[in-house]
Structures are given as C-alpha cells and as structure tokens.
C-alpha cells in the first residue's frame, strides 16, 4: 500500500516537474535575456533543494520496507534522470537563445556602424557647406559696404557736377557779355589789359569744361562699377539660395534614407520619358544634340502630336537650346497682328518670332526653362532664367514664371498669370489703357508694366519718354532702364532624359 502511494506521488511529482520545465522553456523564449538568466539561476538553486527534500522523504517512507536501500537507490535514479532531462532541455533552449541573440546583436552593431559612418560623412559635408556659406556671406557684406561707399561717392560727384554746371552757366553769361564787348571794341582798338582779361577768361572756361568732362567720365565709370557690384551681389545671393536648397535636399535625403530602411519605397514618375523612344521622332533641339549634332543652325523638328516645322537650334553650354525670339538690328517690325504672333514671322537666320503655337507644341512635352539673353548699347551682356509654364490657345497662351538665376534684376511678374496680347487681340485693358497700342508689339503684358522685348527698336539717342516706352528695354520694378541693342529668348527642357 505504501509502495503504491509512493509511486503515485512520484509519478505526480514527475509530471508536475515536466510541466514546470516545459512552461519555463516557453516563458524563456518570450522574455528578455536578463529574466531568462534569473529563472535559470533560480532553477539551479531550487533543484538541489527539491532533490534533497525528496530524498529525505523517500528515505523516511522506505525505512519500514524490507529492502530500503534498493528502493532509495531506484527513487534517486528516477529523480536524477528527470532532473537531468529537464536541465538538458533547458541547456538546449538556452543555447538556441544565445545563438539567436548573438546574431541579432551582430546585425545591430553592423547597422550602427553603417549609420555612424553615414552620419560622420554628412557632418563633414555640412561643415564644409557652412564654411562656404559663411565666406559667401562675408563677401556679400563687403560688397554691400563697397556698394554703399560707391553710392555716397556718386552722390557727392553729382553735387559737384551740379555746382560746376552752375559755374559754367555763369561763366558762359560772362563770356557772352565779353563777346558783346568784343564786338563793340571791334571798331575801337582794345587796350592790352582788356585783351589779357579776355584771354584769361577763355582759358578759365576751357579749363572748367575739361574738368566737367573728366567728372562726367568718372560718374560713368562709377555707374559701370555699381552695375558690376550689383550683378556680383545677385550671383552671390543665387549661390546662397543654392546652398540652402542643397542643405534642405540633404536633410530630406537623410529622412528618406531612414524611411527606406524601414521598407518605404521612393518612386519617380516621368510621363514623357519614353515618348521619343517609342515614336523615334525628333521633338526638340535637345534630341538633335544627343544624336551628335554640335553646330548651331536651322533644323526641322516634329514635337509629339504636332506637325513638323523649322527652328533655330543654338548649341551652347554643353547642350542645345531652341530659340523662340531673336532681335539684333531692328530690321523686322514686331508690331504684328495676333495671327502673325500665333504662327510666327521673320527669318530664322536674322530677326524672327517662332510663333506661339509652335512654342506651345514644344513646351507641352515636358518641363522647360526660359532663358532671356540681353545686350545693351555698351555691349554689356546679361541673362536671366525662369522656370515657366505656357497655356494653350484657349487661355491666350497664358504664361507663369518663377525666377531661377541670372545676372540682371527681374523685371517680369512671378507666380502671376500673364496673357499674351496684341493691338488687335487685347486681353489686358487696365485703367482704360490699351497696352499693346501704347507699348508697340505683342507681349505678355501685365498692368501695362514697363518691360517689353517685342517693342519698337529704338536707338539710345532717341529723345522723349514716348519713344523710350515704345523701345526695346528691360525695366525692373525698382531699378533703372536697360535700353537694349539685342535680345534672344530660348527654351530648354529641365529633364534631359526626355529626349535620350
């Protein structure tokens, strides 16, 4: 009876021990490494105690049996076997856990190393960019100080010139008085003293005239220097804007790289990139350049969904530009009708306007840059570039501009819808003023503002404000007139892969 009770208790304890070990192994897989080590130490500490207690209990129960040594030996062997089996399973689980944790730690260390290296390289690039930005800001500050000094000097020179002009007027009045005296003394023989006085006054007047001419020349040189300083400041501002844009791009790139490590894809959509490859056409001067042509001249292109027509391709800056307007000598009258501006007019080898319909058929293929090149009567060349969009005929070829860079102040409204208008097709009547009639030539007029590159060609000696406002000029909102000798307007795609 005692033996059967002992076996029942032993089997129950065995089953409880096995269940306990299995639960411990399952829990070890879901908890952290520190908790697993605590449970293992606890099991190692409890197991000998449980074994010793069980051995004492078995020994006391078997004292009354006939063969106590044999029973105790079998009980001990069973307990040792159960404990060894549990410890073996526990060891296998611990070994698998250690291998798995070691692999995860190696992956983490590798990712941390890559991140640290990338962060270090970005830090070096950021430091270099900040140093260049600081140098550019210092240079800009020095140029602004020099600009202020030149402005003050120019004002002083103007005051001196005004004083000299007043003196000149007074001297001329005296000369006229002396001339009257000379005519009166023509009959009467002048004295030696009067002759000397007349000679001294003439020499003084000639000296003053020479001095005034020198001052005029100095003022003109100062104006030229001011223009150069202003252009340098504009270029430095463009560089600063480019650096700030580069920093924003690098920051966004870092964020996108972190997101991509989590599995987020970065997609780029280009709806026009495959058109040229599919159709095999020559839709733009850029495609001609990519095919190996390097000479500027007249070529035939055929934009997508359009008829073929001739254009002038300007090969420069390592690519090709499509010229849409060219003015060099005023040989062509640009005061044309709406139909003429729509279809185009002039000679592609000389002065011409390509035509709104042709320009629209080119630009609707993708995103384009608008470049305006200007030359004044002192042969100073300047340029400005815009990102732009051009609407179709249903919108009167509405134009929207956004300045990118340039060496001259902007004179065209940005982020504003500008409708093209001519004398017979005016969509910009403001304050009862017919802009195309007052400002001869078709253009994207805005509130009859004072910039018109299709106006009447006027030489700089033309007098009167009416002639000047009809001329070819560039007028920033807060700046002086740039009376122009020649202009050229060109377009170029922003994505060169469109015509590969």
TrEMBL record:
Record flagged with keyword Secreted: yes
GO cellular component, one term: lamellipodium
UniProt-listed InterPro entries: FIB_ANG-like, Fibrinogen-like_C, Fibrinogen_a/b/g_C_1, Fibrinogen_a/b/g_C_dom
SUPFAM superfamilies registered for this protein in UniProt: Fibrinogen C-terminal domain-like (SSF56496)
GO biological process terms, semicolon-separated: angiogenesis; artery morphogenesis; blood coagulation, common pathway; cell-matrix adhesion; cholesterol homeostasis; cholesterol metabolic process; fatty acid metabolic process; fibrinolysis
Coiled-coil segments on the chain, per record: 122-181, 219-246
Keywords in alphabetical order: Angiogenesis, Cell adhesion, Cell projection, Coiled coil, Disulfide bond, Glycoprotein, Heparin-binding, Lipid metabolism, Secreted, Signal
GO MF annotation: an example: lipase binding
Subunit: Interacts with ANGPTL8. Interacts with ITGB3.
Name of protein: Angiopoietin-related protein 3
């Amino acid at each position: 009876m005692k033996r059967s009770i002992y076996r029942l208790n032993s089997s129950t304890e065995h089953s409880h021990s096995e269940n306990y070990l299995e639960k411990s192994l399952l829990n070890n897989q879901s908890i952290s490494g520190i908790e697993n080590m605590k449970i293992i130490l606890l099991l190692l500490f409890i197991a000998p105690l449980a074994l010793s207690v069980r051995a004492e209990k078995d020994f006391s129960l078997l004292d009354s049996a006939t063969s106590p040594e044999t029973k105790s030996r079998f009980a001990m062997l069973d307990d040792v076997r159960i404990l060894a089996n549990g410890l073996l399973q526990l060891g296998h689980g611990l070994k698998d856990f250690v291998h798995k944790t070691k692999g995860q730690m190696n992956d983490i260390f590798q990712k941390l190393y890559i991140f640290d290296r990338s962060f270090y390289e970005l830090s070096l690039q950021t430091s270099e960019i900040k140093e260049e930005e600081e140098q550019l800001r210092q240079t800009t500050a020095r140029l602004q100080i020099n600009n202020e000094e030149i402005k003050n000097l120019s004002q002083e020179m103007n005051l001196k010139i005004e004083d000299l002009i007043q003196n000149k007027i007074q001297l001329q009045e005296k000369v006229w008085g002396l001339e009257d005296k000379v005519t009166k003394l023509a009959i009467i023989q002048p004295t030696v003293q009067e002759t000397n006085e007349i000679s001294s006054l003439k020499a003084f007047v000639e000296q003053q005239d020479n001095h005034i001419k020198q001052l005029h020349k100095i003022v003109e040189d100062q104006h030229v220097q001011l223009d150069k300083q202003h252009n340098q400041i504009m270029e430095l501002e463009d560089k600063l804007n480019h650096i700030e844009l580069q920093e924003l791009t690098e920051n966004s790139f870092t964020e996108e790289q972190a997101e991509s490590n989590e599995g987020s894809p970065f997609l780029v959509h280009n709806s026009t990139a495959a058109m040229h490859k599919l159709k095999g056409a020559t839709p733009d001067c850029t495609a001609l350049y990519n095919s190996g042509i390097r000479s500027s001249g007249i070529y035939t292109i055929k934009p997508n969904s359009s008829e073929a027509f001739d254009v002038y391709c300007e090969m420069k800056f390592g690519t090709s530009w499509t010229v849409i307007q060219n003015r060099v000598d005023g040989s062509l009258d640009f005061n044309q009708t709406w139909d003429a501006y729509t279809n185009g007019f002039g000679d592609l080898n000389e002065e011409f306007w390509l035509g709104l319909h042709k320009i629209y058929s080119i630009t609707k293929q993708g995103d384009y840059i608008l470049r305006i090149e200007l030359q004044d009567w002192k042969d100073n060349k300047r340029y400005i570039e815009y990102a732009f969009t051009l609407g179709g005929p249903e919108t009167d070829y509405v134009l929207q501009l956004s300045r990118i860079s340039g060496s001259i102040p902007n004179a065209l409204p940005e982020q504003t819808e500008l409708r093209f208008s001519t004398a017979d097709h005016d969509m910009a009547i403001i304050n009862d003023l017919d802009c195309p009639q007052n400002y001869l030539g078709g253009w994207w007029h805005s509130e009859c503002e004072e910039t018109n590159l299709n106006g009447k060609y006027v030489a700089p000696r033309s007098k009167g404000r009416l002639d000047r406002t009809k001329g070819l000029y560039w007028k920033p909102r807060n700046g002086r007139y740039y009376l122009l000798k020649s202009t050229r307007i060109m377009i170029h795609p922003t994505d060169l892969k469109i015509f590969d």
